[in-house]
Every structure is written in C-alpha cells, then in structure tokens.
Q: What sequence folds into this?
C-alpha cells in the first residue's frame, strides 16, 4: 500500500512511501497568486495542477488508491500570526484537499501533537530532521538543509500512516 504524508503550507512538503520505504519526497508546488499586489504579505498559492501531476506520477493507478495522512492545521492566536498568513495556510489546505478529493484518495487528518508524540517530538524542527534521517536514510539527499524540515515532517507523517494503517 502507498501512504502519502503531507505537511501543508506554502513551504510544505509531500512524501510518498510504500513497503520499500520513501519513493518520493518533494516540496508542495507553488505559483504566483493572481491579482496580488506587491505589498501583500502572501504572494503565492499552491499549484494544484502540478501537485496532481506529481501525485499521479508517484502513485500509479495500477497500485491502488493511496492512503493520505494530512496534518490537521487551523488558525492560531497571538500577535505574530497575521491574518494573511493564516488565510494562506487555510487556502493551501483547501487546495491540497481539493486535489486529493478529485483523485479520490482517502484522507486521514492527524493533529501535529498526535504524530509527533509517536516519535517523541515536540516543536524543534531539527529533531524532525534527525528522526526522518534515522528512520529513512534513503532520503538523506532530500533532507540535507535546515529548511528541509517540512520534507522531514512529510516523511514522518507518511511513516506514521504506514504504522497506523498497517
């Protein structure tokens, strides 16, 4: 069975895993948002067509419908969370959900606290990278940089799904 882990967001990522391990990990494709002024805090949006093509490439129909573990996101309070940023996160989630629904993939929403607890993680991004590298050395090349923490979290979401679905 193929399991897909998705860490949503404009800097989010996707990991596709099967019984052999991670077959693909990639950043969520983005594009310039239409009719956005130069002073807008959020300039991009998810490229749904590109995401669909990537998923179809790595999840052939002949292998059955994949199971998707999608991190459950929501709005957050606080002074540092601009309305535009939260709106972009929810817009991104909606775009990802729409692509998955059009592909007829089964979606399981998992709160960050649930899957991170499984791996003994809190909020430190470096720990997610370390854990993903340890569990899946086959993707070390895709997890080289500090900013690859979203890829690492996508890998861990897929790993979580493989454990939970199996």
A:
């Amino acid at each position: 069975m193929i399991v897909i882990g998705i860490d949503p967001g404009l800097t989010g990522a996707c990991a596709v895993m099967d019984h052999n391990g991670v077959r693909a990990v990639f950043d969520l494709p983005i594009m310039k948002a239409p009719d956005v002024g130069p002073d807008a805090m959020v300039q991009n949006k998810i490229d749904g067509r590109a995401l669909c093509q990537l998923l179809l490439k790595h999840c052939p129909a002949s292998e059955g419908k994949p199971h998707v573990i999608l991190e459950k996101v929501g709005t957050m309070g606080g002074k540092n969370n601009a309305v535009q940023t939260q709106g972009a996160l929810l817009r991104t989630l909606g775009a990802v959900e729409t692509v998955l629904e059009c592909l007829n993939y089964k979606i399981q929403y998992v709160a960050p606290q649930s899957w991170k607890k499984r791996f003994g993680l809190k909020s430190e991004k470096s720990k997610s990278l370390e854990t993903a590298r340890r569990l899946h050395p086959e993707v070390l090349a895709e997890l080289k940089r500090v900013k690859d923490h979203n890829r690492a979290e996508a890998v861990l979401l897929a790993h979580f799904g493989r454990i939970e679905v199996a």
Observations:
- The radius of gyration is 15 Å.
- The chain has one domain: 3-165.
